[in-house]
Amino acid sequence: MHAAVIVFPGSNCDRDLAVAFRNAGARVSMVWHKDTALPGGVDVIAVPGGFSFGDYLRCGAIAANSPICRAVVAHAERGGYVLGVCNGFQVLTETGLLPGALLRNANLKYICKTVELRVETADSAFTAGYSAGEVITIPIAHHDGNYFADDDTLARLRGEDRVAFTYCDNPNGSVGDIAGLLSHNRRVLGMMPHPERMAEAAHGGTQGAALFDGLVGRFETA
Amino acid sequence: MKARVHVMLKNGVLDPQGEAVRHALGQLGFDGVEGVRQGKVIEIDLAESDAEAARARVTEMCEKLLANTVIETYSVEIA
Question: For labeling, which of A31, A141, B66, B77 is most exposed (least CB within 10 Å)?
Answer without folding.
Answer: B77
